[in-house]
Amino acid sequence: MARAKHDWVSGAEQALADAGYRRGGARRAVLELLNEQACALSVLEIEDLLRAGERRVSRASIYRILEELERLGAIQRVEIGQSMVRYETIGGSKHHHHHLVCDHCGVLQPFSDPELERTIARLSERVPLVVSDHEVVLHGACADCESR
Ligand SMILES: [Zn+2]
Ligand SMILES: [Zn+2]
Question: Are 87 and 64 spatial neighbours (Cβ–Cβ below 8 Å)?
C-alpha cells in the first residue's frame, strides 16, 4: 500500500507502455503531477498546474491520458454532482483518505477517520467478497453554501 513515490509513476508508465501507448513528455508530466497531489484534481486544475510548471499539455491530451490511466486502473474518478469529475491516483504516494463533496459548488475535501477504517475492516470480514479496497464519499452542502 505505502509504495515509494516513484513506484506509482514508473508503474503507471510501464502499464501504459504495455498497453501500447508511447512514452512521452506529456504523459510523464501528467503522471508526476498526479502523484504529487494529496487529493483529486479536475481536468482544469491539472491544465493550470501543468502550465504553471511550464509544462504545456493540451486539454484534449489531458483528457486522453486520464482516460487511458483510468482504463488501466492507475487512477480513479471522484464524481462531484452531475457533471464535475476529479481524478486521483490509486496506490500512489497520497495517504489513504475519503471525500466530502459539496454538491452545490463542487468543493472537494479529503477526510480520514480511524474508527471508520476499523468498522470497514470488520465489515469486510463478514461480506461475501474478498475486499481489496473501499471508497467513501459524503455528499452535502459545505459551510459556505449552507449559509447562503
Ligand atoms: Zn482524494
Ligand atoms: Zn459548497
Answer: no
The pocket of ion ligand 2, defined by CB under 5 A, consists of 102, 104-105, 107, 142, 145
- What is the C-alpha to C-alpha distance for residues 103 and 79, in angstroms, rounded to an integer? 10
| Residue in this structure with the C-alpha cell 471508497, named with its chain if needed | 135
Per-chain mean pLDDT for the chain: 90
Q: Please give the backbone phi and psi of residue 140, each rounded to the nearest 5 degrees, phi first.
A: 170, -150
Classify 133 as helix, strand or coil.
Answer: coil
Centroid of ligand 2 to alpha carbon of 105 (angstroms): 4
pLDDT (tens digit per residue) in 87-137: 999 988 788 899 999 988 888 999 999 999 999 999 999 999 999 889 899
Distance CA 113, CA 85 (A): 24
pLDDT of 24: 86
Three cell numbers, residue 22: 508511447
Distance 125 CA to ligand 1 centre (A): 25
pTM flag (> 0.90): no
Nearest CA to 116 among 107, 124, 108? 124
Beta bridge partners of 139: 101
